[in-house]
């Protein structure tokens, strides 16, 4: 499911601060503008709370904070990428969506072993694009860790 | 639909049949003598067995078979449905339920449980019940092994002429005579030759069989040579249109055995004479030719090509030049009764006749029509209506905000919309409403089990089983109810000896009832036991430090101590009602459902537990409040009263605790915003509102919130669907402004205020 | 032309198994849940063959077969009875009531189809 027939991946890129990240398009349901979330007590800092997505209560994750960077200060320009894996839907708070592109799986390079602040299991690899570098976020790991952290 | 789906249907159906079985047995136990009750009970077991057979669930089949056999004896009045037998059957029903569950979930049932009952059931079926049903140990292995056919069929004489009956595949009776002797006739390239004489009787046709179809079937085995003999054909005026006058001489050359040939006649051997001999009978085939011309119809070589198109059973076919088809349908031309099924021959006359006959069909009272709907679809509908309710609220709110006052037409329209929305919601909720009957029925089993374990005699009486409540509630009440029932039998009722001593009937009565009261369901569990021993409860509470030795408590207060966490009246922890779970947990889980529970007890007369629950977990009536700029919903059922604290009412207690004086008592203040980590400092109680809530153990707490926004019915939304449970929060909802608001878990907050941290494992989710 | 089978059984499980099996084998199917409904459906649906259970509420298989055989239009229709292997007595009763043949439960699809093929033109 994660790998398409011809080993090509369709990805959606977004920015967090001055860095670029991406996730697989296949898990993205929609992109919507920021709306204030209802705070959840006793939740990790990167869980901004929950919002109403057409009747469904959906948690919002501050992806910047989750990846070890500064907390977002959401404005009208910020967007929420609604992602779904299995039966679970989570909104990712990001600065803006920058690109949709396709890469061959073999062009994904392993993440360098330098980062101490970034949870390496959340990063599937690095994708070089012209003079850019896009960090490929592993959504499955992100979803899996959400529950254990929350508890 | 595939087999897995059908298997799911099977297990669903099993649930229904098991419920039917149990309620039928209970009715019989209460003296019901209606034969239809026994029939229904029999059908339930029979049906489970039938389906289980289809899925190869052998354990289930063999137990159901033994059970069915004994039930069949009752059904045919060979065996009396005594109380003792019914006890065995009720326990068998329990085991059948366990076997079903094991088949579904992949577990096992201890073979000792089944083998004991199998022995008892078989003994009853044989008319020799074992001496004492309850004392029946695991029987000898031989008796335990289910032997299907034996015990069951009081084989009637009619059974005899059925050589190929059931198995269909008996050892091959290969004819060695044929090999030795007329080998040139019998064997050609490993093929055998059989001669079959087949003479149908008229009953054969009356039962829808056809000679021609038999021949066609036979032709599938190999090569056929067929001769139709009409020696018995009477003259036309003597001819019974439905008589059977033809017989058949058939030579079969096949690579199959005699058994296979005989098998073709399986359905008709009852209504015909069939002789099968190995080898050819050339003489017989030769004979008719020799008989010559004066009886041209007597024996006719049968044209097998006619078998290709069998419906040639036509009414015009009786003429001598086309004798064969007529033979298949032995009748004269033009007789309408000869019309094969579905030919529109003389249809009108027949229809008229048929109408007359229809009155033979027994009249059956019209049952209310029902359809079966996937629960998913109903859930989806309920969710959508929930959205509708929210949207309607949002619309109303924005109208109020945008137009000061609004036009009267808009307001009127909004009011109507609100009314309609509410009605739709009620109607939709009614779809998912279900009677509490299945849960009550399960309790019957619990009572039997515990009565057995504690050697007590208990009769369970249920009332109001048809009281309906939302499925979400039904699913959640079974567990607390089970604990309460266990508790009532284990602690409430006395042993038969003690009851007799006290001048009571040795058999205790447990009354389980349900009824609707002011928009809630009230379930009562009443026993006629000894009642609460208040001296002992009080002593225990003092010993455990729950109350002081000089505490002045009312009887009611003492009774309610049993709901206090950690309180256990049993001197030793009982494995039966306990399992380490006390009434405090029962109370907590009921409160988590938005319910309440209370007890009243009379010494020597018994105790009554009363719980009241909301009719649904899809919506709840809530108090919408503000806490540290957050909007929260507090379930209305938890709130005893709301207070506007005066400065003089507030008293400090210890380092950080504050108490509020309510009339003559002091009640601890709980700052909700602080407990939920919305703010680190404590709010000034005078600036806010106190919600007096009832907490565990009968004590009360005053929850401090900043302001009350109003009361509202809210649609309950799960937080766990996309996240996880949150300490202190029971669920979420969506308010009129479209934003998510959290529903407070009052008990968790109160517990946390005692210094225990809020943690997920304390949570009892309130949503389904 | 497709043959039409009327199945009469009170068990949802068995009804569904019959439905799937017969559908796959290319039959048209009409269903009834007991003998009373079976007689009603019979009139409307005009089947070529009937497969019926014995133990059913309201009107059992015996009564149903008798009812069919009393109906001039359908008295010669083939009727197969679903029976369990131990039901020798019932088989005889069914036969006396006018059943054409029987299928032993649990049936496997090929046996069911074979039995139907055997009694239908």
TrEMBL record, chain A:
- In terms of domain of life, where is this protein from? Bacteria
| Database matches in InterPro entries | CheW, CheW-like_dom_sf, CheW-lke_dom
The UniProt record lists the CheW-like domain at 8-148
- Signal peptide residues are none
UniProt cross-references to PANTHER family, sorted A to Z: CHEMOTAXIS PROTEIN CHEW (PTHR22617:SF23), CHEMOTAXIS SENSOR HISTIDINE KINASE-RELATED (PTHR22617)
Q: What is this protein called?
A: Chemotaxis protein CheW
- What organism does the record attribute this protein to? Hoeflea alexandrii
From TrEMBL, chain B:
Question: Which residues does the UniProt record annotate as the domain HPt?
Answer: 1-103
Report any Pfam family annotated for this entry. Answer: H-kinase_dim
InterPro entries to which the protein is assigned, alphabetical = Bact_Chemotaxis_CheA, CheA-like_dim, CheA-like_homodim_sf, CheW-like_dom_sf, CheW-lke_dom, HATPase_C_sf, HATPase_dom, His_kinase_dom
Kinase is among the record's keywords = yes
Q: Which SUPFAM superfamilies match?
A: ATPase domain of HSP90 chaperone/DNA topoisomerase II/histidine kinase, CheW-like, Histidine-containing phosphotransfer domain, HPT domain, Homodimeric domain of signal transducing histidine kinase
What EC number(s) does this enzyme carry?
2.7.13.3
Record domain CheW-like: where: 619-755
In this chain, the stretch annotated as Disordered covers 130-173, 317-340
All copies of the Histidine kinase domain together span 415-617
Low complexity: bias regions: 131-161, 317-333
Q: Which reaction does it catalyse?
A: ATP + protein L-histidine = ADP + protein N-phospho-L-histidine
CDD domains per the record? CheA_reg, HATPase_CheA-like, HPT
Arranged from A to Z, the UniProt key words for this protein are:
ATP-binding, Chemotaxis, Kinase, Nucleotide-binding, Phosphoprotein, Transferase, Two-component regulatory system
Q: What the protein does?
A: Involved in the transmission of sensory signals from the chemoreceptors to the flagellar motors. CheA is autophosphorylated; it can transfer its phosphate group to either CheB or CheY.
Which PANTHER family does this entry report, sorted A to Z? CHEMOTAXIS PROTEIN CHEA, SENSOR HISTIDINE KINASE CHEA
The name this protein carries in UniProt is Chemotaxis protein CheA
* Originating organism: Hoeflea alexandrii
TrEMBL record, chain C:
Keyword Phosphoprotein assigned to the entry: answer is yes
Q: Which UniProt keywords apply?
A: Phosphoprotein
SUPFAM superfamilies documented for this protein = CheY-like (SSF52172)
Q: Which residues carry this modification: 4-aspartylphosphate?
A: 53
Q: Where is the Response regulatory domain?
A: 4-120
Magnesium recorded as keyword: no
Domain of life, source organism: Bacteria
Identify one Pfam family in the record: Response_reg
Q: What is this protein called?
A: Response regulator
In which organism is this protein found?
Answer: Hoeflea alexandrii
Higher taxonomy: Bacteria, Pseudomonadati, Pseudomonadota, Alphaproteobacteria, Hyphomicrobiales
């Amino acid at each position: 499911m994660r790998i398409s027939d011809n080993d090509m991946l369709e990805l959606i890129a977004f920015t967090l601060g001055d860095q670029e990240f991406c996730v697989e398009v296949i898990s993205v349901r929609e992109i919507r503008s920021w709306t204030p979330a209802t705070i959840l007590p006793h939740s990790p800092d990167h869980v901004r709370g929950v919002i109403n997505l057409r009747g469904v209560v959906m948690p919002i994750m501050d992806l910047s904070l989750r990846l070890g960077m500064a907390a977002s200060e959401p404005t009208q320009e910020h967007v929420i990428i609604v992602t779904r894996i299995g039966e679970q839907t989570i909104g990712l708070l990001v600065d803006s969506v920058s690109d949709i592109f396709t890469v061959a799986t073999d062009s994904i390079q392993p993440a360098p072993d330098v980062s101490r602040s970034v949870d390496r299991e959340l990063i599937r690899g690095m994708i070089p694009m012209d003079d850019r570098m896009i960090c490929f976020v592993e959504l499955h790991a992100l979803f899996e860790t959400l529950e254990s952290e929350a508890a | 639909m595939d087999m897995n789906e059908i298997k799911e249907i099977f297990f669903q159906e099993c649930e229904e049949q098991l419920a039917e079985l149990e309620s039928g047995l209970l009715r019989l136990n209460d003296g019901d003598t209606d034969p239809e009750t026994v029939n229904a009970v029999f059908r339930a077991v029979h049906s489970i067995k039938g389906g289980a057979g289809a899925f190869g669930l052998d354990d289930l089949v063999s137990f159901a078979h033994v059970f069915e056999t004994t039930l069949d004896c009752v059904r045919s009045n060979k065996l009396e449905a005594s109380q003792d037998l019914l006890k065995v059957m009720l326990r068998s029903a329990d085991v059948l339920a366990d076997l079903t569950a094991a088949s579904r979930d992949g577990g096992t049932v201890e073979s000792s449980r089944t083998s004991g009952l199998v022995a008892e059931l078989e003994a009853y079926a044989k008319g020799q019940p074992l001496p004492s049903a309850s004392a029946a140990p695991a029987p000898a292995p031989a008796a335990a092994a289910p032997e299907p056919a034996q015990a069951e069929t009081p084989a009637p004489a009619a059974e005899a002429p059925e050589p190929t009956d059931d198995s269909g595949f008996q050892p091959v009776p290969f004819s060695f005579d044929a090999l030795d002797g007329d080998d040139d006739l019998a064997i050609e390239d490993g093929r055998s030759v059989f001669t079959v004489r087949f003479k149908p009787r008229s009953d054969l046709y009356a039962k829808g069989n056809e000679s021609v179809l038999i021949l066609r079937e036979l032709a599938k085995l190999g090569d056929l040579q067929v001769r139709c003999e009409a020696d018995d054909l009477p003259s036309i005026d003597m001819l019974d249109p439905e008589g059977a006058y033809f017989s058949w001489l058939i030579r079969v050359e096949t690579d199959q055995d005699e058994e296979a040939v005989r098998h073709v006649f399986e359905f008709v051997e009852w209504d015909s004479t069939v002789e099968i001999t190995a080898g050819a009978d050339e003489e017989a085939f030769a004979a008719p030719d020799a008989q010559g011309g004066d009886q041209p119809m007597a024996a006719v070589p049968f044209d097998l090509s006619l078998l290709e198109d069998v419906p040639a059973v036509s009414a015009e076919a009786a003429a001598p030049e086309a004798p064969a088809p007529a033979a298949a349908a032995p009748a004269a031309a033009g007789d309408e009764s000869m019309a094969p099924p579905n030919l529109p021959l003389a249809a009108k006359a027949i229809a008229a006749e048929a109408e007359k006959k229809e009155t033979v069909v027994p009249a059956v009272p019209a049952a209310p029509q029902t359809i079966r709907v996937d629960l998913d679809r109903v859930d989806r509908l309920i969710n959508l209506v929930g959205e509708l309710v929210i949207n309607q609220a949002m619309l109303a709110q924005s109208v109020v905000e945008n137009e000061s006052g609004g036009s009267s037409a808009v307001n009127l329209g909004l009011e109507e919309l609100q009314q309609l929305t509410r009605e739709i919601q009620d109607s939709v909720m009614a779809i998912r409403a279900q009677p509490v009957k299945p849960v009550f029925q399960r309790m019957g089993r619990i009572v039997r089990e515990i009565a057995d374990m504690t050697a007590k005699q208990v009769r369970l009486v249920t009332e109001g089983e048809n009281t309906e409540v939302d499925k979400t509630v039904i699913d959640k009440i079974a567990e607390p109810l089970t604990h309460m029932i266990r508790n009532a039998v284990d602690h409430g009722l006395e042993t038969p000896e003690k009851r007799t001593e006290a001048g009571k009937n040795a058999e205790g009565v447990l009354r389980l009832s349900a009824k609707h009261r002011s928009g809630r369901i009230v379930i009562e569990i009443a026993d006629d036991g000894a009642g609460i021993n208040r001296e002992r409860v009080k002593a225990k509470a003092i010993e455990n430090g729950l109350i002081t030795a000089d505490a002045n408590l009312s009887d009611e207060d003492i009774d309610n101590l049993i709901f206090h966490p950690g309180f256990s009246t049993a001197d030793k922890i009982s494995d039966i009602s306990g399992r380490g779970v006390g009434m405090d947990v029962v109370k907590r889980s009921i409160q988590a459902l938005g319910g309440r529970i209370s007890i009243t007890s009379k010494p020597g007369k018994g105790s009554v537990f009363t719980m009241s629950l909301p009719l649904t977990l899809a919506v709840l009536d809530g108090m919408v409040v503000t806490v540290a700029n957050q909007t929260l919903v507090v379930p209305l059922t938890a709130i005893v009263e709301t207070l506007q604290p005066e400065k003089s009412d507030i008293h400090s207690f210890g380092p950080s605790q504050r108490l509020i004086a309510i009339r003559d008592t002091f009640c601890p203040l709980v700052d909700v915003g602080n407990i939920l980590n919305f703010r680190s400092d404590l709010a000034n109680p005078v600036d806010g509102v106190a919600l007096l809530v009832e907490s565990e153990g009968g004590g009360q707490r005053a929850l401090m919130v900043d302001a009350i926004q109003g009361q509202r019915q809210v649609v309950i939304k799960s937080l766990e669907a996309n996240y996880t449970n949150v300490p202190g929060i029971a669920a979420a909802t969506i308010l009129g402004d479209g934003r998510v608001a959290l529903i407070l878990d009052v008990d968790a907050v109160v517990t946390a205020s005692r210094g225990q941290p809020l943690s997920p494992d304390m949570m009892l989710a309130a949503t389904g | 032309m497709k043959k039409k089978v009327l199945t009469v059984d009170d068990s949802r499980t068995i009804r569904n198994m019959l439905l799937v099996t017969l559908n796959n084998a290319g039959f048209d199917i009409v269903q009834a849940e007991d003998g009373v409904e079976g007689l009603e459906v019979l009139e409307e649906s005009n089947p070529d063959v009937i497969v019926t259970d014995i133990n059913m509420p309201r009107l059992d298989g015996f009564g149903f077969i008798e009812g069919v055989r009393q109906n001039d239009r359908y008295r010669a229709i083939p009727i197969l009875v679903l029976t369990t292997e131990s039901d020798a007595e019932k088989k005889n009763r069914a036969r006396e009531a006018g059943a054409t043949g029987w299928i032993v439960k649990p049936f496997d699809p090929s046996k069911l189809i074979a039995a139907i093929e055997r009694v239908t033109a």
